[in-house]
Write a structure and sequence with these properties.
With about 180 residues, this protein is α+β, with helices and mostly antiparallel strands. It folds into two domains: about 1-80, no CATH class; about 85-183, no CATH class. About 35% of the residues lie in helices and about 20% in strands. InterPro entries: Beta-lactam/transpept-like, Diverse_Enzym_Activities.
């Protein structure tokens, strides 16, 4: 839709609208070559560095502003972090339940998991976007901390002891939040 609306390919849009303004000099989307064309692999296809991705998290944390420049509107950030499923029935063994022991149905934002939610306001105060391969970017607005973990698990031995980097990463973020905030 973005390509049609802007009459530009996705990678060009990503570079012009996000990567360049955020100083993400080493970031691009992995292409999927279909009939000679360039279709980006949006789910899990971002090739980036830790420093580049921290710029992105910084912008999200600061309501769309990065180094004094409005990259995304605060309204866009609010929509991204809003409950996008509106009370849909979520299986009890979902990511939020397994990873954090939380029981709420508003787990999906746009491109973000709504991990921890204020029960009175319904607003997410911890968001993330974990990858199955061990990437875990997160923002905890309540404790005013954000970061990015990459865990690497080698071979099948990773599953023999039950460890999952996907489900284990939120434990690391909770430890960091508790350490920084003194909880």
């Amino acid at each position: 839709m973005a390509e049609v609306a802007m009459n530009k390919d996705f990678e060009t849009l990503f570079q012009q609208l996000l990567a360049q303004p955020l100083g993400m000099k080493n970031s691009h989307f992995t292409p999927i070559n279909t009939d000679g064309g360039h279709s980006p692999m949006l789910g899990g296809g971002l090739c980036t560095t830790l420093n580049d991705y921290i710029h992105f998290l910084d912008m999200i944390y600061h309501q769309g502003i990065y180094q004094g420049q409005q990259i995304l509107s605060a309204a866009t950030i609010k929509v991204m972090q809003a409950d996008q499923v509106k009370g849909a029935i979520i299986p009890p063994d979902n990511y939020i339940a397994k990873a954090l022991g939380q029981a709420h149905n508003g787990i999906y934002g746009l491109g973000e998991w709504r991990e921890l939610v204020d029960q009175q306001t319904g607003e997410a105060y911890q968001i993330s976007s974990p990858g199955w391969a061990g990437a875990y970017p997160w923002i905890n607005k309540r404790d005013r901390v954000y970061g990015f973990f990459i865990t690497h698990v080698v071979g099948s031995s990773a599953k023999e002891d039950g460890f999952s980097s996907f489900y284990g990463s939120p434990i690391i973020s909770r430890t960091v939040s508790e350490t920084i905030s003194g909880h």
